[in-house]
Amino acid sequence: MTLKRQTLNYLGFAGHGNLGDDAILEVYREQWPDWELWPVPVRKKDVAKSVLKGEFLPRRGAPLLLGGGTVLGRTIWRHHIARTNKLLNPKFAMLLGAGVEDPEFVGDKSYTSLEELKLWEGIVADFGNVTVRGPRSQEILASVGIPVSIVGDPALLLGEQNLDENLNESGPILVNLTHGEDQWGGTDLNWVPSVVESLRDLQRQGRQIDFVSMEPEDYAWNDQAARALGGTHTHHKPSTTADLVSILKDARLVIGTRLHTCVLAVAVGVPTVALEYRPKCRDFMASVRADEWCVRVDRIESPALTDLVERLLSGSAAQLAIQNQSVRELRGLLKDEMQQLTNRILSS
Question: CA 24, CA 166: separation in Å to the nearest integer?
Fold first, then answer.
């Protein structure tokens, strides 16, 4: 196998059915449409298959791009990076707007610790200029002596490029529910009934409630909520990022659990309430000055959630002005950093 165009090895989790992970890869493919971004296998069985097919050898030495969300500070991703470096021996590595695993998270298990985070100083040094998603990510790395700058989530580069404060008053409240891999309070915690009660209050006010899933794992959660709520609801199951963005644009307000439901809703200029199942959700919402509209799932109380949504519905224009300006600023930082990455690749 001979590669005849610029190749970047992309280490993320795209291609496994999660539109959030796919959205980040799509950002880079839009930026570099003439280059090959090869998704590096992550699962051990997929790594073994690629080794047997000889797929690693022709890509050895190509730059490595670390993508895919909350990867810094996490033990399993340290192992992924080490294995990838061994197999591909990249001439250099890059990242943009990464998330950092939070040592304060308490779910079914822990995914990092102060000791683990200290191991990352040498790892991130190999990536040159390190930029992160939000202020909590910056704070965590600073606590172990790693200075970084905030540029926002790369997926903000998707969506509506000319944001305004116009609202789709006839649009539905669009809801995404899930617990993902883990959540505050552990995966046995069922907070859906509290959310449903709040949605029922909004439905009584004449609001249309619809649902959207980011991956098949979300289907049961959203179907369960729709059944409990009663009435007629559309459950969107988009297969592409473009489809998801189109659905989000039509909403009056989004209530999202998956991180990139919220990221892409903000990117298209829709008022958004984040149900924080992991700290990464608040990290992002803080980056766009919207953390007031973020509720931890283990602290959801239906009257308080209803009140929060009603306040955002009535104050949408004011919040969008703040949120949209934050997106514009972060997009500027992301584009500047993307240009720096481009220059580094072209000069290598």
Answer: 27
- Model confidence pTM above 0.85: yes
Residues 128-180 have pLDDT tens digits of 899 999 999 999 999 999 999 999 999 999 988 899 999 999 999 999 999 88
Alpha-carbon gap, residue 297 to 151, rounded angstroms: 26
pLDDT at 2: 47
73 vs 30, 81, 122, 312, CA distance in Å? 28, 11, 12, 34
Residue pLDDT, tens place only, 86-95: 999 999 999 9
Query: What residues contact 267, with CB distance under 8 A and at least 6 apart?
Result: 155, 156, 157, 158, 159, 160, 245, 327
Give the residue, 181 or 17, on which the prediction is more confident.
Answer: 181
CA separation for the pair 156, 94 (Å, rounded): 18
In angstroms, the first-to-last Cα distance of the chain is: 22
Considering Cα of 225, then 153, then 168, then 243, what sign does the dihedral take?
negative
Q: How far apart are CA 185 and CA 65, in angstroms?
A: 33
* CB hemisphere CA count around 32 (13 angstroms): 21
- Go through 314-331 and write b for each residue having 16 or more CB atoms within 10 A of its CB, e for each that does not: eebeebbeebbebbeebb
Residue 15 is given by DSSP the state: T
pLDDT score recorded for residue 180:
85
Nearest-angstrom CA–CA distance, 202 and 207: 6
- According to the model, what pLDDT value does residue 117 have? 98
Neighbours of 208 (CB within 10 A): 17
d(CA 107, CA 146): 26
Identify the helix (H) or strand (E) that includes residue 304: helix 302-314
Rounded distance, CA 97 to CA 55, Å? Answer: 28
φ, ψ at 73 (rounded to 5°): 85, 0
DSSP one-letter code for 172: P
